[in-house]
From TrEMBL:
Name of protein: Delta(1)-pyrroline-2-carboxylate reductase family protein
InterPro entries (alphabetical): NAD(P)-bd_dom_sf (IPR036291), ODC_Mu_crystall (IPR003462), ODC_N (IPR023401)
Transmembrane segments: none
Superkingdom, taxonomy of origin: Bacteria
GO cellular component: cytoplasm
PANTHER family in the record: KETIMINE REDUCTASE MU-CRYSTALLIN (PTHR13812:SF19)
Species for this entry: Variovorax terrae
Length: 310
């Protein structure tokens, strides 16, 4: 092996190695720290449509020490084929030297940073963190959210809903292997009445949750990231807007939060998670909806976490 090959091998982390460098408690803490860091810059991401219905995402971000670019493809047609819908890498550079420090597995970063942001939002906004946690969608994001909420909020009970019973049962078994109590439901709307915490993490090809959350409920919707995608019924969104609080991950939600846009809500007027952390608003009674659309800043937080100890 030549020295250049050895260097490349050392830099390139596979999914397991990437996950090992992104423990959820540390990733949640780093995400909160990033939202307080005034040196962070996140240019607008480029989404390039691909033939066949896929998309190429180019997502740069930087702070005073680290610069990253996330390059991933999103291919909905891969559903059911055994090929992942999200593929790609996060390339991490040292700002001062220009040196490439790491290449992280893109899908692993996406799954873990998304779940970490949801967990941070729940820590910050949830009126009742006791659980059970309802997870709608039993794929990669469902598993990531299960692990993140268990490790950072102490959730001990989960209820899982999925259009695939096999996937739901597999995730429930994984939860039990982690020492959690888990059950599968065929009716997510009915289960919502018993779950003060809920996350929807589906492909967002249609509404999966219509019932209004509990008065002390926290609902996190992560699946939809274009105006056409949707997981939550419009009446649900309008109910929370009238009776509780809606917070979005970033200002980019103005153009991407399909659930809220299709409900006819003024997304530009909604508070962001970063704004809430920097200047907490007075507590308001009623349910909380956190809408997550994705942001390269979350990938930068993951890169900063992964660099620790190197």
């Amino acid at each position: 092996m030549t020295p250049s090959c050895a260097m490349t091998s050392a830099l390139l982390l596979d999914p397991d190695a990437t996950a090992a460098r992104l423990p959820y408690p540390a990733l949640v803490a780093e995400t909160a720290a990033l939202l307080q860091d005034t040196s962070v810059q996140v240019p607008e991401r480029r989404v390039q449509p691909l033939p066949g219905g896929g998309s190429l995402f180019v997502m740069p971000a930087l702070d005073s020490r680290v610069a990253i670019t996330k390059l991933i493809t999103f291919t909905p047609a891969n559903a059911g084929t055994g090929r992942p819908a999200i593929q790609g890498d996060v390339v991490v550079f040292d700002v001062a030297t220009g040196e490439r420090r790491l290449i992280l597995d893109g899908p692993t970063v996406t799954a873990r940073r998304t779940a970490a942001v949801s967990a941070l939002a729940a820590q910050t906004l949830a009126p009742n963190r006791s659980g059970p946690l309802l997870i709608v969608g039993a794929g990669v994001q469902g598993r990531a959210h299960l692990e993140a909420f268990a490790q950072t909020l102490g959730v001990a009970r989960v209820v899982i809903a999925s259009r695939s019973d096999a996937s739901a049962q597999a995730l429930a078994q994984h939860a039990r292997a982690l020492g959690l109590k888990a059950r599968v439901t065929q009716d997510a709307d009915a289960a919502l009445a018993d779950c003060p915490l809920a996350v929807t993490c589906t492909p967002a090809s249609g509404v999966v949750l219509r019932a209004a959350p509990r008065a002390d409920g926290f609902l996190c919707a992560v699946g939809a990231f274009t105006p056409r995608m949707v997981e939550l019924g419009p009446e649900l969104c309008r109910h929370v807007a009238a009776q509780g609080t809606i917070v979005v991950d970033t200002g980019d939600a103005l153009h991407e939060a399909g659930d809220l846009l299709q409900a006819g809500l003024d997304v530009a007027a909604l508070p962001t998670l970063g704004g809430w952390l920097r200047q907490p608003s007075p507590a308001r009674a009623g349910p909380v909806l956190f809408k997550s659309c994705g942001w390269a800043g979350w990938d930068l937080a993951a890169a900063r976490t992964a660099l620790r100890g190197l």
